[in-house]
């Protein structure tokens, strides 16, 4: 590694400490809380807290990446201070994020397979109806061959029955066989007698050594038995302390744990259904009993506000927009009062009466105040930049967008649940008073929106009536003003309509259901199944020397354990939760690079399996001869974009990320036209926002074959998947070999690792 990279290991110790403090707590929350809490009203709050903590962790990870100028952050110094190991940094798989999504995905695949089978059955029936019977199409030569065979068999049978053996020949045959048998018997007997004589001769030579031989055999056998017993005891001890790897791991406890988990999940679902049913009942009851009264109170309050403005200011107020909160802004006091409006009008009238010089002076003073404010802001920014330049041995923590929300949610949890006495609710069912309060808030909010629409229309009518009254007082007709106003509105409406039509995108599959679109992509091979794989099955050790290399101003190569943790942070956690995806740094696309057999496809399958993603395969060889032409390609990308966003989380996969941007297309790949998607992929990635849990995931073995600029623009992150080093290879070989009982527990795995140095995981 070169010396061009200068890491700031001394600067990131305190930031690493912030990250490290969250990891153990987060892992405990991930593994315990989702299954322990069954109360249906408490679980959403705890889940929100957990996801906000994960989002804050990813935010800090992004800070470390910017600080180190590297995707990998090594923090051994902070680990030693906090007395932790690298295994404490690994985030456990968040199982509850996936939920029961597998059942939904399987139902989609079953629907698509059922439709395909129905089509195949109809095609088979059509072909059977038009087919000619097989007997009518047999050639005449086959019939003649069959008759020749039967004729030959009949002639052979007649010859066999015509010959008969004589009695004399039969007797001679029996005698010859008997003589041969007696000869063989005599030969065996003579051989046995010779062996016995040889044994007797040897026993006379040995004499009295039988006893000595027996003692030696017993001693050797007993020694071997004792050594075997000691070896077994040693193996048991080493297995107990974890030195040896067992060939069989008991699954009783795991099965019991899974059964408890499933029972609790079923219990949670039952409680959730009860809560939803009671919320619906309470909603209907509140609307029926209190809905009309609430709407009357709201309209009366708003009308009083209209009357107050008319009495004091002579006009009607401007109604707050939906973005401002509607009539809620009136209740919270966030609207302009008539007194303030009158003061502003009086001030404007006073300024109008002043001489021109005085008015110009007031305008100049206002401009001067604005200039002073801008100059002050510039000075503050310059001071901040100067402070950043002065800081050489530290860093400035960026403002977090997650901490305020996290603080508010935690405050809500403390106020509602921390000190709540739940001794009377041992079954952890819902609280009816909380259901009533929640439905009251939601229904009031919905009713307020309806009232706002009604009162806006009423205010419009009042303003029109006020304009007519003023026009009548001035001696003008209100109808002419009305017609002029209508003409202006029509002109504006036309311009707006044209602008909207230009921006609106045409839906090429309007009117089709998600199931139909899914079946269409599944039939064409774009949507595929993938083997269920856990992220923990990607075995590998952490890098224990990388921190020291960083201190020596070198950029070391990461290990497979570091890579597994990075994939968890960049792909699994953001795609697993909508809230995490919205608050965490957005990663739209990811490219895994590495030689053949290092486990790139295993990582892709693990990402999809952990989050329950729909898998779209846009590999050039897979889409060859499909959706041909410009319109076909447009339809393909439209289908992929629409279905991936409707069925999120989704993974759009490209095997050979360099192929759409080849410098020169190889001859053997020209037929597949690998550069078909070079213009479509950037548009697709650009359409992904924080609301869409969709990721473009590419793998490549030869990134140098592509033009660098478009590839770098397309993918947000590039991660190198290295071959296993000694520690990772040792772990891999140990897991591969020690699951077989016939392999000795003290097998020298180290020698095998050294022999297989340089080989990839696929070769293993």
Description:
This protein is mainly alpha-helical. Among the domains are: 514-722, P-loop containing nucleotide triphosphate hydrolases (Rossmann fold, 3-Layer(aba) Sandwich), CATH 3.40.50; 723-764. 64% of the residues lie in helices and 3% in strands. It has helices spanning 13-36, 43-68, 76-82, 95-98, 101-129, 140-162, 167-206, 210-241, 252-289, 291-313, 327-331, 338-353, 356-390, 403-418, 432-473, 478-503, 514-523, 546-551, 560-576, 578-583, 600-611, 629-646, 680-686, 708-714, 726-737, 749-755, and strands spanning 589-593, 614-617, 650-655, 694-700, 717-720. The chain has a five-stranded parallel sheet with strand order 2-3-4-1-5, sandwiched between helices. Helix 23 (680-686) links the parallel strand 3 (650-655) and strand 4. Helix 1 packs across helix 3. It is elongated, with a radius of gyration of 42 Å. It starts with 12 loop residues before the first helix and ends in a 9-residue tail after the last helix. The relative contact order is 0.09. Residues 1-10, 132-163 and 477-502 have low confidence and may be disordered. Residues 590-708 form the ATPase AAA-type core domain. Residues 363-394 form a coiled coil. One of its GO terms (molecular function) is ATP binding. Keywords: Coiled coil. Pfam families: AAA, IQ.
């Amino acid at each position: 590694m070169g010396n061009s990279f200068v890491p700031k290991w001394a600067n990131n110790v305190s930031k690493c400490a912030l990250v490290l403090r969250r990891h153990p707590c987060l892992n405990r929350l991930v593994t315990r809380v989702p299954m322990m809490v069954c109360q249906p009203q408490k679980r959403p709050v705890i889940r929100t807290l957990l996801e906000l903590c994960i989002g804050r962790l990813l935010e800090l990870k992004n800070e470390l990446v910017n600080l180190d100028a590297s995707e990998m952050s090594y923090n051994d110094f902070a680990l030693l201070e906090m007395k932790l190991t690298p295994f404490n940094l690994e985030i456990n798989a968040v199982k509850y994020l996936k939920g029961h999504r597998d059942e939904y995905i399987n139902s989609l695949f079953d629907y698509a397979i059922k439709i395909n089978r129905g089509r195949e059955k109809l095609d088979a029936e059509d072909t059977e109806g038009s087919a000619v019977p097989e007997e009518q199409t047999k050639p005449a030569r086959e019939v003649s061959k069959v008759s020749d065979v039967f004729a030959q068999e009949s002639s052979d049978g007649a010859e066999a029955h015509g010959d008969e053996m004589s009695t004399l020949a039969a007797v001679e045959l029996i005698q010859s066989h008997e003589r041969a048998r007696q000869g063989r018997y005599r030969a065996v007997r003579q051989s046995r007698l010779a062996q016995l004589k040889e044994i007797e001769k040897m026993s006379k030579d040995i004499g009295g050594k039988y006893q000595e031989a027996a003692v030696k055999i017993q001693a050797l056998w007993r020694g071997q038995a004792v050594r075997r017993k000691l070896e077994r005891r040693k193996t048991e001890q080493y297995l107990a302390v974890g030195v040896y790897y067992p060939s069989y791991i008991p699954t009783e406890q795991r099965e019991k744990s899974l059964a408890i988990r499933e029972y609790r999940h079923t219990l949670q679902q039952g409680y959730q259904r009860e809560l939803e049913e009671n919320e619906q009942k309470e909603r209907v009851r509140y609307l029926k009993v209190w809905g009309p009264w609430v709407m009357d109170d709201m309209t009366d309050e708003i009308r009083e506000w209209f009357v107050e403005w008319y009495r004091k200011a002579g006009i009607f107020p401007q109604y707050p927009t939906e973005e401002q909160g509607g009539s809620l802004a009136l209740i919270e006091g966030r609207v302009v009062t008539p007194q303030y409006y009158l003061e502003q009008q009086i001030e404007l009238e006073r300024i109008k009466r002043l001489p021109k010089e005085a008015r110009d002076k007031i305008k100049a003073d206002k401009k001067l105040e604005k200039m002073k404010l801008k100059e002050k802001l510039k000075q503050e920014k310059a001071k901040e930049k100067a402070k950043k330049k002065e800081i050489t041995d530290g860093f400035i923590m960026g403002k977090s967008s997650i901490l305020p929300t996290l603080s508010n949610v935690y405050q809500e949890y403390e106020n509602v649940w921390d000190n709540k006495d739940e001794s009377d609710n041992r079954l952890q069912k819902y609280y009816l008073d909380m259901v009533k309060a929640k439905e009251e808030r939601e229904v009031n909010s919905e009713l307020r929106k309806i009232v706002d629409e009604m009162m806006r229309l009423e205010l419009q009518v009042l303003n029109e009536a006020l304009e007519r009254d003023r026009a009548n007082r001035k001696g003008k007709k209100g109808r002419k003003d009305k017609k002029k106003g209508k003409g202006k509105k029509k002109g504006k409406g036309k311009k707006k309509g044209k602008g909207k039509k230009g921006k609106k995108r045409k839906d090429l599959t309007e009117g089709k259901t998600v199931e139909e679109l899914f079946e269409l992509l599944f039939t064409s091979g774009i949507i595929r199944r993938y083997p269920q794989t856990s992220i923990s099955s990607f075995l590998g050790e952490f890098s224990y020397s990388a921190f020291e290399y960083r201190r020596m101003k070198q950029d070391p190569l990461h290990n497979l354990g570091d890579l597994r943790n990075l994939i968890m942070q960049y792909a699994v956690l953001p795609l697993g939760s909508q809230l995490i995806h919205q608050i965490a740094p957005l990663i739209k696309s990811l490219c895994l690079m590495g030689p053949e057999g290092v486990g790139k496809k295993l990582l892709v399958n693990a990402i999809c399996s952990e989050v329950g993603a729909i898998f779209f395969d846009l590999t050039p060889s897979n889409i060859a001869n499909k959706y041909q032409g410009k319109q076909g390609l447009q339809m393909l990308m439209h289908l992929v974009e629409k279905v991936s966003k409707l069925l999120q989380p989704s993974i759009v996969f490209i095997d050979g990320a360099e192929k759409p941007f080849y410098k020169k297309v190889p001859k053997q790949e020209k037929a597949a036209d690998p550069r078909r998607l070079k213009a479509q992929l950037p548009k697709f990635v650009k359409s992904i926002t924080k609301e869409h849990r969709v990721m473009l995931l590419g793998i490549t073995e030869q990134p140098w074959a592509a033009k660098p600029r478009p590839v770098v623009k397309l993918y947000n992150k590039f991660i190198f998947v290295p071959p296993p080093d000694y520690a990772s290879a040792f772990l891999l070989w140990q897991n591969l070999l020690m699951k077989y009982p016939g392999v000795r527990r003290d097998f020298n795995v180290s020698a095998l690792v050294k022999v297989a140095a340089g080989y990839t995981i696929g070769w293993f």
